[in-house]
Amino acid sequence: MIVLLSIALLGAPPALEAEYRAISAIRRTGDYAAAAAAFEKLANSNPESDLWQRALATAAAIHQWDLGNPVKAKSLYDRILAGHSARRGVLPALVQRLQLERAELGVNAELELCRTLEKRAPKAEHAPWLLIHGAKILADELDDLATAIGMLERVRREHEETTYVDDALFLEADYLRRLGRPSAALIMYGALIDSQMKSLIVGSYDSVFLDDAFFQKAETLRLEMKNAAKAEKAYLELVERVPNSTLVDDALFQARLLAAARGDTARAVELIALLRKLRPDSRFL
C-alpha cells in the first residue's frame, strides 16, 4: 500500500493534479467507496495522462486495503498491467496483483500468474522482474532449483541490456551452489565482477552486487572448493578493489584465519593490523 501511494505526482496538468488531491481529501474523511469511485472515474476520463495509472492504482489500493474487496482491486491492477509498461507505477501494481493472487489461491497460482504475465508481454520493462520473481518462488518455496536457473538464464539471454542481468547472475550463482555445482557458480560470480568493474570504470550505474560477488566468490572457494589459497587471495581482492565495502571487515578476518591456519603467523598479524587501520571499530578487533 505504501509503495503504491508513494508514486510521485508528476507529469499531469495542474487541474488534474488538483482534482486528484481533492479526491484524496475525500478518502481522508473515511468515505472510501466514494473516493475509489472518483479515482476510477478520473482515470477513465484521462486515459492518455500519466495520472491514469496513478488514479487506477490508488483506486485499487482503496479496494484492497480500505474496502476489503480484492476482486475489484485485482480487476483494476489488471487494467494497469494491460496498459503501457513504461508508465509510472506498473511494478508496484504488479507486486500487489501477485500478492492478491497468492493470498487467494496460493504460491503455485502466483507463480503461474508470473508466467502468464511474462508470456503476454515478454518485451515489457517488467518482464525480467517477473522471471526473477518466479525463479525466487521456484527456488525458495517450491525447491525447484533447476527450473529457477532456467528462468534466470532467460533473463541473461533475453534482457542482457538491463541491470536485471546482475540480479540473475547473483541468484544463479547461489542456486548453482545449492545444487552442488560450485565451479559453475564461480563462473557466474566472475561474469558479475567483470561486468560490474566495467560499470565502475564508465560510471554507467552503481555496482550493487560487486562486493557481494567478490565475497561470495571467496566463500565458494573456501567452503565448497576447499581451496584455502585461492580463497585468501579472493578475500583480499575484495579489500583492494572495493575498499569502501561493508564486507571489508569480514574479508580481512577470513583472510587472517586462513593465513593462521596455514601457519603463517606473520601474515596473520599483518592482516589484523590492516583491519585495525582500515576498520578501527570492527567487531573483529
Question: What can you tell me about this protein's structure?
Answer:
The chain has 285 residues and is an all-alpha fold. The chain folds into three domains: 1-105, Serine Threonine Protein Phosphatase 5, Tetratricopeptide repeat (Alpha Horseshoe); 115-178; 180-285, Alpha Horseshoe (Serine Threonine Protein Phosphatase 5, Tetratricopeptide repeat), CATH 1.25.40. It is built from 15 helices and no strands. The protein has helices at 2-5, 14-28, 32-45, 51-66, 70-82, 90-105, 107-120, 127-140, 145-158, 164-178, 182-202, 210-224, 228-241, 248-261, 265-278. The radius of gyration is 24 Å and the shape is elongated. 40% of the residues are buried.
In short:
This protein is about 75% helix and about 0% strand. It is mainly α and about 280 residues long.
Number of continuous helical runs:
15
Gross morphology: elongated
Strand content: under 5%
* Count of DSSP strands: 0
CATH architecture of the largest domain: Alpha Horseshoe
In CATH, what is the homologous superfamily of the largest domain? Tetratricopeptide repeat domain
| Amino-to-carboxy terminus distance | 43 Å
Domain count, please report it.
Answer: 3
**Overall pLDDT, averaged?**
92
Question: What is the multimeric organization of the chains shown?
Answer: single chain
Question: What Rg, in angstroms, do the CA atoms define?
Answer: 24 Å
Largest sheet geometry: none
Provide the structure class: mainly alpha
Helix and strand pattern: HHHHHHHHHHHHHHH
Q: Fraction of residues in helices? A: over 70%
Low-confidence stretches: 1-10
Please name the CATH topology of the largest domain.
Serine Threonine Protein Phosphatase 5, Tetratricopeptide repeat
CATH class of the largest domain: Mainly Alpha
